[in-house]
Design goal:
about 150 residues; about 20% helix; alpha/beta
Length: about 150
């Protein structure tokens, strides 16, 4: 039998707490004995009445893996702009140490990767840990020497 289509009374009478022993909800009014939850005006921190709390609705962030290697990336257009600005001398060997010394990459980076965005116009010498295919092709086209560290 469905409870939705019954003609009888569906709503229950509200229990009035704290109305004497005979009511069954007298004295402590169903709050148990003592403790923080039995007092009035107290909210348990971050409890939202059973709703999924805000701190669990938001994604986890901020774990930094221990063995992570910091790789500094440098595009060809960036190297060209530094040469144009006379920050880097085109005859110098461009490597991680030089870029760290000139503060062009982060001092905590352990490896240097050259990427192929942009064009390079002058012959340069590059020593890097990693070089992308497109960067290698562009460097060879101009006649630059690119050496991979082992």
């Amino acid at each position: 039998m469905s409870t939705l289509n019954t003609t009888g009374k569906v709503t229950k009478k509200k229990i009035r707490v704290g109305r004497g022993i005979g009511s069954g909800k007298g004295k402590t009014s169903g709050r148990g004995v003592k403790g923080q939850k039995s007092r009035s005006g107290v909210a348990i921190k971050s409890f939202e009445g059973g709703q999924m709390p805000l701190y669990r609705r938001l994604p986890k962030r901020g774990f930094n893996p221990i063995g992570k290697i910091n790789v500094a990336i440098m595009n060809l257009e960036k190297i060209q702009s530094f040469i144009d600005q006379k920050t880097i001398n085109s005859s110098d060997m461009i490597n991680a140490e030089l870029l760290k010394k000139l503060k062009l990459i982060n001092k905590n980076s352990q490896k240097l990767k050259i990427l192929g965005t942009g064009e390079i116009k002058v012959k340069i010498n590059i020593e890097a840990d990693l070089i992308s295919k497109s960067a290698m092709e562009k460097l060879e086209k101009v006649g630059c020497t690119a050496r991979l560290k082992k």
